[in-house]
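Title: Prediction job returns without error message
Component: structure pipeline
Severity: low
Priority: P3
Assignee: unassigned

Description:
Job completed but the reporter wants confirmation the result is attached to the right record. Sequence as submitted:
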Amino acid sequence: MTDSNAPGLDPEDRKIVTLARSARARNGVPEGAAVRDETGRTYVAGTVALDSLRLSALRTAVAMAVASGARSLEAAAVVTDADGVPAEDLAAVRDLGGPATPVHVAAPDGVVRSTVAAG
């Protein structure tokens, strides 16, 4: 897989887009996501769709970061066919990263379609 060639996207942000894309493809789920914490660690997840539990890939990645002791987020990425990011997903990123945390939204081919602030 190749990563995004979006102009202005720094290498660390391209990395989380690539990780999110890989999670989506590897697990055969509708979305893949990755977040980067304040120390540079990354957390990667796919959509969770159980009868008793439904979580978007982005909320799952944020939960993994919190469960691993992350205190804040630097950036997030989600790979999806959807046009945007649901408010609940942005709220999860905002809760840990703050309102200015960038969320890169990429198509399944890894091309970043937009970047939105969590807030």
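Comment from assignee: result matches the submitted record. Residues 11-27 form the longest helix (17 residues).
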